[in-house]
Amino acid sequence: LVFRAKLDGSPRLALVDPKTGQVMSWTSALPSGTSLAIRASPDHIVAYAGGNATTAYVYSRADLAAAPVAVTLDSSVSTSGLGMVGDWIIHRSGGSGAVTAVPIAGRDPVTRLAGSNDGLAFSQGGTAVAVGRTGADDWGVQHITTGADGRPTVTLVKALPKPAYPIQGLSLDQGRLVEADDSYSGGRDTYGRTVAATGTPTY
Length: 203
Description:
Elements: E1 2-7, E2 10-16, E3 23-26, E4 37-40, E5 44-48, E6 55-60, E7 69-72, E8 77-85, E9 88-93, E10 99-103, E11 110-113, E12 115-116, E13 121-122, E14 128-133, E15 140-146, E16 152-159, E17 167-173, E18 176-182, E19 188-194
């Protein structure tokens, strides 16, 4: 178990034995502003400043008192979207929704998911799950694990194709095609497109 606590007047992280309740080790004083969010994996503990973080501090569970590795994130993170898979920080961009892997060793980040829904789930075993896509439209439940080369790899667990959406009405008048369907609010939405007058219809 990992707790945020104070020692000698400074905020720190404490690793506690869940069976005995005894403190096993402490970190050094946390860097300013990093105690808002904590994530743990089998080998690391990460502290960062929540949803607007641009830097994450990675502590080794093997030597919690050692100085953390400061890892620069390639974008501001989504509060529920940061954790560890192996020796890589996995985080979700609060803007684009892309899921990126950033190595704590200092190499360039790599994009693992081109887009995703809000939130990443991390397991105690050091893997992650997200609803997202690797390409243009291949949405599904995606499992992020450590590959044979040590880099995070993505495996599709369940495809989530777009469901059929019933059209409620169509009209074509003077080159304008209007389509109506149910809206999320329970009413009806309409969408208009200009249709090419000759050749194969395009929108």
